[in-house]
Design brief:
Elements (H helix, E strand, L loop, with lengths): L2 H12 L7 H15 L1 H9 L16 E2 L2 H4 L11 E4 L10 E4 L2 H16 L6 E5 L1 H4 L5 H13 L5 E3 L4 H8 L10 E5 L1 H10 L8 E4 L12 H12 L5 E4 L8 E3 L6 E2 L3 E6 L14 E7 L8 E10 L5 E6 L13
Length: 333
């Protein structure tokens, strides 16, 4: 079977994937990528992994996420429609995720969101993402822009640090937020700025933070962040979105600190001192992720995030591992 035929079969199976049979599909994606992703194949070879002996997801090698900073990670040879890039400080090497099919990415974000919140087209979508809008290549901006387009509501849109238009919508008693589901999606520092300048009762709004202070404010724990926002906005919970440049799927938290992954995403933890060994659920380790939506790049990613995974598949993110840029396998150097 040719590369294109294999890709088409996997593409059809990943679209609208319900979550059942994840392991079997992950193994098929692994074999596909081991055969057609030159970078991943070399990494597997240097680890002395026999592809034929990989019979469970626990046997699959995970590619260090840092490879996205230094290589074009692609399965097969194709021309990208977009390149997602990570944010970074001046002089820092940023990750680049080459996207073959931008429409598939958009459809997959809707599929994941719908599992937990329903159809984004039925929401008034308010995106407070100044740091992301101020640069190019943000996958989050593409996702938010797609949700805004789907909502087809004149008040849906992006907002920078001029909060006046946003606060008019939030405070106006005749606004649609009183009778339509509303999502306020914001980067953490901007939500804090809004909370300090315009504390307002938003208990009828889903407030969802995307994490990160981007150097604009002091770093704080997620618990501390959520407590500040809940107090200012008089809401019982702050929701969270977990995503990254290197993933085409997302996970969501309704406020209890546990993220539920989209059907195409699964989390595992690996030993802190042995990056090639997975560990039992419930133990703190470094997160490994399988994202089936990454079938055109690499679906098996060893992240730099500390976390815990629970038996129901949910996971917690506890922070970043120390010296993440130098940790991991150096075989490709």
């Amino acid at each position: 079977m040719s590369y294109e035929q294999q890709r088409e079969l996997i593409f059809q199976r990943v679209q609208d994937f319900p979550g059942d049979g994840f392991g079997a599909l992950a193994l098929d994606v692994f074999r596909f990528q081991a055969a057609h992703n030159e970078l991943y194949a070399r990494y597997i070879s240097l680890l002395n992994v026999d592809i034929q002996r990989v019979t469970a997801t626990s046997d699959i090698p995970f590619l260090p996420i840092s490879f996205f900073k230094n290589y074009a990670v692609k399965t097969g040879h194709w021309q990208e429609q977009a390149v997602f890039t990570s944010s970074g400080t001046t002089g820092e090497t940023t990750s680049r995720h080459y996207v073959r099919d931008l429409d598939f990415y958009k459809k997959n974000t809707v599929h994941g969101f719908r599992q937990f919140y329903g159809d984004p087209a039925k929401y008034l979508v308010l995106a407070l993402l100044p740091s992301y809008l101020e640069r190019t290549g943000s996958s989050l901006v593409v996702m938010a822009g797609h949700f805004i387009q789907l909502s087809r509501h004149p008040q849906s849109g992006f907002f920078l640090q001029n909060f006046d238009p946003l606060i008019q919508i939030l405070r106006n008693p005749k606004s649609e937020i009183r009778n339509r589901k509303t999502l306020l999606l914001g980067v953490s520092f901007a939500l804090l700025d809004l909370a300090e300048r315009y504390p307002v009762d938003l208990q009828h709004v889903i407030i969802m933070e995307t994490g990160g202070m981007k150097g604009r404010r002091r770093e704080m724990t997620r618990t501390e962040l959520h407590e500040s926002l809940k107090t200012a906005f008089h809401t019982p919970a702050i929701h969270s979105e977990y995503g990254m440049t290197e993933l085409l799927s997302q996970a969501y938290s309704a406020g209890e600190g546990k993220f539920s992954p989209a059907p195409t995403l699964r989390a595992f933890t690996r030993e802190i001192t042995d990056p090639l060994t997975l560990q039992a659920t419930g133990k703190t380790g470094i997160l490994n992720l399988i994202d089936l939506a990454n079938f055109d790049t690499c679906s098996f990613i060893a992240t730099d995030d500390l976390g815990r995974v629970w038996p129901d598949g949910s996971f917690e993110v506890l922070g970043r591992a120390d010296n993440s840029d130098v940790r991991g396998c150096n075989l490709m150097v």
